[in-house]
Design goal:
Helix content: 40-55%
Largest sheet: 7 strands, mixed
Oligomer: single chain
Length: about 750
């Protein structure tokens, strides 16, 4: 019997194959994007299910954090309301040395922090091996993933880690005492190596007090402020807030992200359900006949649910394939910090759970037609035929609203990203010139120590024409300086670079090149210089209270962001600090071969365990700049996909509508209906629905955009609004016009003969 139902289901789906494919694809896309957003937020979100989460109070320094003496002072007070005190430092990332049982030392890049004995337990990390109490000054605890990465299957307990000394009293060699496992990298508090608090005094600390049950939280916080504030220095010691309030900002980000994912899934699901219900209306006669010949309620339900199950399963398989493609793409282009903690098994598990939830919804939907069939009559069938268009129009309206929301959000977000970050590469180089520039980052202590030798070997390469350096990658700023005139203050982007930075990147500059070690000299951008001219400043500029002599004026290093609001231009300070090096190749050089040569030279001084960052300037994969660009493209892709879903939905709806109303059209044509009348008959509902939805979505969307990007010009512009309205209207017209044209020119005699 099940085989019979399966054959009937597949035969019926093949009868409506175009609509079935559209519905399955839309649902698969919805599941894929919902899964991706949920997984991202879940991994990089914050955990609110930690021990004593509703009884945790954060205690930290107002300016520079807490010192070890502050922590000792809190312990000495013996505050009876505190059950435990969790103490930790910020997470740092740097080069460390790992010494195995054979006393062989290899350097690695790892994240590390200071923590006390309550930290690991308080953040849900479980002890896998050894002792994780962090009581001894010379013992550390490492994560299970780090142990696997460095030591493989070998037991790491008893092996050593070398941390370069920054202060005289710091230890250098630490023994691995324990291994922990848990939800790592899900929060900024997790690291790969945990050092005891007593190992160093150079880190600022923060503390979280877990309060005993039954204690009044407000009274406790007030008492803590009174106890811990230092006399004569009231704002240097204590800042107290609830644990939950620390994550309030991310809560809204998480909520918005889940709404975006849910809306995409909803758009695909609405189209899927609309197809199922429309198919039920078209098959009422078949279902009624089956009931007359003895088919029970269970049989009718099984028939409908089998069709739904087949389509849902295919949608799940397509979604898994799309996830596989997206995963490969993300690993290739995004930063390792973003993709390193995602596994395809996690993706599949979320997809499967989503599949089960959607399947449950479809099961409920399938129960409704069966219930209707039990009580069907001719009169009720006629009533349903008038109401089905109302349901269809409502569903299409929901999809249009979602599509307009995403298209508008994608465009405004892309404009905001461009306005905020600008073009992260120089605008004075051609694509060909970017292909001839190699970027090398001095990213480890081992490379920095041997840099003179590395640079000497690189300069011996005949393909190297010239080089320059900067503190940060081009397009990024070291920080912000403040400039103040009589009326207001602005923030000025600050870049540290070599004086020949401008000539290397073809940046127009008026002035002179000073020595790299010149003090109190700056170059100012044209935008900032124009403001200085308005203020009557000439030759000397004051930034953050310090005076600098203006050595020259450049146009801009890139498309400078934020020339509205509180930002205005940038400055370049000559420096001897060199982190990013740029090498220009000769026109005849093979760029990819030269990259390999640079890697070979660096590996003479840097072991394989340390990463190298060498790439062509034109290659923005796995860079901050590339990630920012990709995010803007993803938003545009979301908008395009949501628009595609609604267009396909309209196409499917009008296709089924024209098929089911062929006899009506034939009779109208026989009675003298003109093509215009027939066109208006089918097209008016889509036109009116679109106008109504646009009128509702527009004010809501603009208010949301203005509230999110109030300091930018993009939300206040109307060109993108008009463009969206006209563009979507033309697409809807193109989709509907084709099907309306086909039915307008049908021969009434042919249609009636078929009936």
């Amino acid at each position: 019997m099940l085989l019979h139902y399966l054959k009937v289901a597949l035969r019926n789906l093949w009868k409506y194959k175009a609509h079935s494919i559209i519905s399955v694809l839309c649902l698969a896309v919805g599941i894929t994007f919902y899964t991706a957003i949920s997984l991202f937020l879940g991994r990089f979100g914050v955990s609110r299910d930690l021990p004593g989460g509703d009884r945790r109070v954060e205690v930290t320094g107002m300016k520079y954090g807490l010192s070890l003496e502050n922590i000792d002072y809190i312990h000495s007070l013996h505050i009876e309301e505190i059950d435990s005190l969790i103490v930790g430092s910020p997470v740092f990332k740097g080069e460390i040395g790992c010494i195995d049982g054979n006393q062989r030392e290899l350097p690695y890049i790892a994240s590390y922090m200071l923590a006390n004995n309550h930290f690991l337990k308080g953040y849900g990390l479980e002890v896998v091996a050894g002792d994780a109490s962090l009581q001894k000054k010379d013992e550390v605890v490492i994560s299970e993933k780090f142990a696997q990465r460095v030591f493989g299957g070998e037991n790491p307990i008893g092996m050593s880690i070398r941390l370069p000394k920054l202060m005289k009293d710091d230890l250098e060699i630490y023994r691995i005492a324990g291994v922990v496992s848990g939800i790592e990298f899900n929060d900024y508090r997790f690291a790969e190596i945990y050092f005891p608090l007593s190992s160093s005094s150079r880190f600022a600390l923060s503390a979280e007090a877990i309060v005993k049950p039954g204690v009044d939280m407000q009274a406790f916080k007030q008492r803590m402020r009174e106890i811990l504030l230092e006399p004569g220095n009231p704002d240097s010691f204590v800042y107290i807030q609830d644990f939950a309030s620390r994550y309030q900002e991310f809560f809204w980000i998480e909520l918005i992200g889940l709404c975006i994912g849910s809306l995409i899934l909803l758009s695909g699901l609405v189209n899927f359900l609309k197809f199922l219900i429309q198919m039920f209306y078209n098959r009422q006669r078949e279902l009624a006949i089956r009931k007359c010949v003895g088919s029970g309620v269970g049989g009718l339900f099984t028939l409908l649910f089998t069709e739904c199950f087949c389509m849902m399963t295919v949608a799940l398989l397509i979604s898994m394939c799309l996830s596989e493609i997206c995963y490969v793409f993300a690993c290739q282009y995004l930063l390792d910090e973003v993709t390193g903690f995602f596994q395809l098994t996690d993706v599949y598990w979320i997809q499967f759970k989503t599949y089960l939830v959607v399947l449950l919804v479809c099961l409920v939907i399938c129960l409704y037609p069966v219930w209707r069939i039990r009580r069907t009559s001719v009169i009720r069938m006629v009533m349903v035929a008038t109401r089905r268009h109302v349901f269809r129009n409502v569903m299409i309206g929901v999809q249009m609203a979602i599509s307009l929301f995403f298209v508008g959000g994608a465009i405004i977000t892309a404009m905001a990203v461009h306005e905020t970050f600008g073009d992260t590469s120089t605008i004075y180089l051609t694509e060909e010139e970017e292909e001839r520039i190699i970027m090398l980052k001095v990213n480890t202590a081992r490379m920095d120590k041997n840099w003179d030798a590395i640079l000497g070997d690189v300069q011996q390469m005949p393909e190297i024409e010239s080089y320059t350096y900067s503190m940060l990658e081009i397009g990024e700023s070291f920080g912000f300086s403040q400039y103040t005139n009589e009326e207001r203050s602005w923030y000025i982007r600050e870049v540290l670079a070599s004086p020949d930075y401008f000539s290397f990147f073809n940046v127009p500059m008026q002035g002179k090149e000073v020595d790299a070690n010149a003090e109190n000299m700056v170059y100012v951008s044209r935008a900032f210089y124009n403001q200085l001219q308005k203020d009557g400043v000439d030759g000397i500029v004051k930034l953050d209270g310090y005076e600098y002599q203006i050595a020259g004026v450049y146009e801009s290093l890139h498309k400078e962001p934020g020339l509205v609001g509180q930002y205005i231009g940038s400055v370049v300070r000559p420096t001897l600090t060199d982190t990013y090096y740029y090498f220009r190749l000769t026109p005849q050089a093979d760029a990819k071969v030269c990259v390999k040569k640079l890697e070979t030279i660096c590996r003479k001084y840097v072991p394989e365990t340390l990463p190298l960052e060498i790439r062509l300037m034109s290659d923005r994969t796995k860079t901050t700049a590339g990630t920012v660009e990709l995010i803007s493209y993803v938003f545009l892709l979301l908008g395009f996909i949501s628009l595609l879903v609604v267009i396909l939905s309209i196409y499917s709806a009008i296709s089924m509508d024209t098929v089911s109303r062929q006899k009506e059209v034939a009779i109208r044509k026989i009675n003298g209906a003109t093509p215009k009348v027939i066109a208006w008959l089918f097209g008016r509902s889509y036109l009116l629905t679109y106008l109504l939805v646009f009128a509702i979505v527009l004010p809501i969307g603009r208010l949301a955009a203005i509230s999110l990007y109030q300091d930018l010009d993009a939300p206040y512009r109307w060109d993108w609004v008009v463009g969206i309205f006209i563009g979507i209207a033309l697409l809807i017209f193109a989709v509907t016009a084709y099907k309306i044209y086909r039915i307008m020119h049908l021969n009434p005699a042919t249609i009636i003969k078929k009936e």
